[in-house]
Amino acid sequence: MSGLRDTTAHALGKALRAAARVRGGGSAYPGLAAERIAPGFTARSLTGLPRGVVVISGTNGKTTTTRVVTALLEASGLRVFTNRTGSNFVRGVASQVIADVPVGGRLADRFDVAVLELDEAHAVHFVADVPATYSLLLNVMRDQLDRFGEIDTTARKLAVVAQATTEAIVANRDDPRLVSAVEAAVSRVAWFGHGAALADTFPTDDALYGAVGEAASAEAADVELVDLTDAGAAYAIDGAEHLVPLQLTGAYNALNSAAALSLARQVLGAEADTATLLAALAEVTPAFGRGEKFSVEGSEVEIVLVKNPGGFRLALTSYDPAGTDTAIVINDHHADGRDMSWLWDVDFSSLAPGIALVAGTRSYDMAVRLLYDEVEAAEVAVDLAPAIARFARANPGTPKRIYCTYTAMLEVRRALERYTTMEAL
Amino acid sequence: MTSETSRGELHIVNLYPRHMNIYGDRGNMLVLTRRTTWHGLTPVVHEVNPGDELPERADIIVGGGGQDSGQVTVADDLQRHGDALRGLAADGVPMLMICGMYQLFGHRFVPIEEPELPGVGVFDMETVGGPVRMIGNVVAESDDLGTLIGYENHSGRTLLGAGVAPLARVTQGDGNNGDDGFEGATRDNVIGTYLHGSLLPKNPAVADFLIETAARRAGLETVEVSEHDHIERARRQAAERPR
Q1: Pick from B29, B232, B243: which is nearest to A365 by CA?
Q2: Which of A4, A15, A211, B47 is 20 to 30 A off residue A227, Cα-Cα?
Q3: What is the ipTM of this complex?
């Protein structure tokens, strides 16, 4: 019944995708159209994959972790289908099916496993149609409360994902809301986490606000991040410690890599080879806009995506502002979240005495935020593109770092395109 | 601004910061303490969490919004301070209560499914749970404090009684309940509102009302604060953004 309809939807999606590429349009639209014509298109496309479907969700680090998991599984010989564009809604997955499979073809003929990044709300809808064979739950931090209302609501969504997981759940042992979220799950649970010595590096959402959260689990971790130095990240796996030099920057990426290692071990089972996995991990480069670096007229420009207070705080403690020109670009479009309250949950005093540029649709909210932390903004710009180009091209040789919200990141990349070479989205 | 010799202390009480801290309400405390300093006074902050007593001296009292679970925890504890808070309000102590604490400053909050939460009745009003969350940018006009700019995110619908006045009338957004056009409540020197944003950074008139009222009651003189341009621009930028 749905076969012909799916083929039609797929063909139309292909055409829309080709048109969108010419226009330079969004990545999710062809998938949205396919789902409209043939509801359930995505779910049916994903059936029959030999190793099943992996769902990766949580507040921070989904895109980079998905990239790491994909690299680890590919290095281990699996053919991996993934939504690598960071379009983490169901329609983004549908769009990727349309891109990666010829019309009339089956996903299962070309791939062994699907590794999908899904936003918490979409993950709930997704698992109602497609049970996750494996799920990875990274963390729960306050984020986009204008969409989700409350952080406890977000945790309940992840509990639904956990209950719909058939084989194994990988979850953050150190996040009390996730420990509760997997309590009622039926499948086995593998934990990842960090050693006690790193507790201050990775505060939970409650600890960030001085609250007394529930105790996190004392369970042994399948993969534990035990140390983090300039030489790399040290992971404890099966009782042995391994030092991995990472190309990914940011402490949270080192922790999320522990999650990715554990997830790969669940999917691969007895086939998992620790040396292969660690070698692949060392090769992973940042996802677009997530610590991504370009060269602009002799200066290294790094783009750091910040979407919520926990992520912004971690980013500010991960990167040293000394010797670097810093810009912050804050937009309030729907995908960024309209509410600016979150900026007041981030401590910016480490950026004192000042930064070079503040821009975005809410540039002055950000400027006021800095004012109250006694951080000077040399320029506050309303018109983003020319300001960011001036910023990137000033002081040749001095590294630049741009903290930006999601839509701001897309605009920043567009503004810099003509001055550098970068991976197309 | 910081070289000024202090003309005295202002004791600022933050009610339940451990549980009622969502949506950046800590920004209100940061603005109050900084501006107290700018006004030439020394802020002394007292955090009151469940089980704690109120300090002997309270010049300004502030409470924030929280998750439903946090609100349940503090609602019981708040009853211990009911008499004291009603007395301080009647004496003219300036207070600012946001969202979840605003609701608990009424007579009661009746959620849709959960048990009723008792309030302390500083405001003659009550709140009932509603099926729709009211979320988005808000612009509201207050007779005393000018244009208020903030962001609301609540499902409780608050109805004011005869013994309390609205703080402002919304020109964008839902406010107390989405029906009567009122936003917030006020009596004596107590202000309640649904506005996050955080409220005080973009509404320095409210911050200065609290500080100047507290200083006057304590017999302290304040110095003028020259406002940074960024604040007026942030207000204008925010007022032009869609809901």
Answers
A1: B232
A2: A211
A3: 0.95
List, in order of start, the domains of chain B with CATH numbers. Answer: 9-239 (3.40.50.880)
Supply A245's token pair: 């030099």
State pLDDT tens for residues B54-63.
999 999 999 9
Rounded to two decimals, the pTM is 0.75
Is the CATH code 3.40.1190.10 the one for domain A2-283? yes
Chain A residues with CB-CB distance to B242 below 8 A? 338
Active site residue B196: yes
Kindly list the domain boundaries of chain A, sorted by start residue.
2-283, 290-419
Question: How far is the CA of A117 from the CAs of A92, A114, A136, A176, A342, in angstroms?
Answer: 10, 10, 9, 22, 24
* A290-419 classified as CATH 1.10.3210.10: no
Question: DSSP character for A58?
Answer: S
User: Residue A391: in which H helix or E strand, if any?
Assistant: helix A384-393
Q: Which two tokens stand for residue A93?
A: 């997955």
A111-132 exposure pattern, b = at least 16 Cβ within 10 A, e = fewer: bbbbbbbbbbbbbbebbeebbb
Residue B223 C-alpha from the chain's centroid: 24
pLDDT in tens, A110-140: 999 999 999 888 899 889 988 999 999 999 8
Residue B129: both structure tokens together: 């749970």
CA distance A357 to chain B (A): 14
Instruction: Report the C-alpha gap between A263 and A266 in whole angstroms.
Output: 5
